[in-house]
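step: validate -> pass
step: tokenize input -> pass
step: predict -> running
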Amino acid sequence: MKRIFITETVLRDAQQSLIATRMPFEDFEGILDRIDSAGYYSIECWGGATFDSCLRYLNEDPWERLRKIKSKVKNTKLQMLLRGQNLLGYKHYSDDVVRMFVRKSIENGMDIIRIFDALNDLRNIEVAVDETIKAGGHAQGTIVYTISPIHSLEMYVKIGKDLESMGVHSICIKDMAGIMSPKEAYDLVKALKENVKVPVFLHTHSTTGLGILTYLKAVEAGVDGIDTAISSFSGGTSQPPTETLDYALKQMGFDTGLNSKVLKEINDFFKPVKDKFIKNGLLNPFVLSTDTDALIYQIPGGMLSNLIAQLKQQNALDKLDEVLMEVPRVREDLGYPPLVTPMSQIVGTQAAANVLSGERYKVILKEVKAYIRGEYGRPPGKINPDLVKKVLGSEKPIEGRFADTLEPIFEKTKEKVKDFAKTDEDVLSYILFPQVAEEFLRNRGKKKEPRERKIEYTIEGIS
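step: predict -> pass
step: emit ->
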């Protein structure tokens, strides 16, 4: 009986997709022991936007949050999402910072690090993969999945083979917008299983309604593991429900390792947590519905919930449809980058700027300019030449690995912030989010009212 590994996402991607990563530690502390005993392969609980949100909105030290989770989870592997050379921020960091961050993540309790680059430029994950392996962690390389005129099955298989050659312990297909169809999943998983020897995992969302079907066909094709969310925090822009997949897979003759009675306890615990977020307005019913338009605009769940929150605060929620339809146009202009952080934020926020300013590219984000210069890596396709000329003029874009142009900064920064950053972890928090981290570290331990975000023509601070 084949084992299908199940990763639970309620502590990270599920709540990031539905409530913009606003779940404080106290909301799930009481159920960690039961999650640990449910039989999951891993628990995704850190990375992505959790780090930013802990500092910016929840008045929590993200490193302490990780240590607290580890102290209560003794049997199940902890998993995180890392944006390669971007770490958990929105720009590239020097190699010394990447290595230190990876090492400290593992020292503080992380087991599996899922590492991706938004452009599938593997030059931007090689340092993080190397350091994960050296530090004794499980390095999971990632294929960022998208659909465009330039992306193909052959391209994805080549990425998988290149990842295996890099030394990763497993490969994840990351379908952040829920746009992968059952047939596409079957074909890609089958092709990868025929070409690589390491385990293959699949991550998708329920956004378009395809999620459960996609997982089942992936299982038929030989996938080794999938990501699911406990049912009260599943569906919509989150992952397909854990209990439903557990039930179906067991009937199909697969072993999930999960205890269905414990899953019910976990779900019952999170039901009132969900109700709380519905009542305070953070959980918008829009993100719980099936939205097949996502097959067109391809915005992942976390970005969609953030866009809604931002437009709502600007009293511009009526512009949401215009923004969503502008997204694929901006994406085409930028050479069809996959819409995953930070590219989803860059493309989505530029689309919002185009709509709200009343003129396309009247305002060009500094991140868009950096992307066109080559600071995020090699674009998958050709960038609109008119936009390139508007941004660069006669300047030539960077063709090499951008991180090679960056000087080491960790030790210099450590000396600079020694009056309020007491540990290496504090220094890393500051490097990733300077203003927010400094405010947090200087006022650590003081009660703080939650902050609300406001949309600006920048992606800084978007979780």
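step: describe -> The first strand starts at residue 5 and ends at 8.
step: cleanup -> pass
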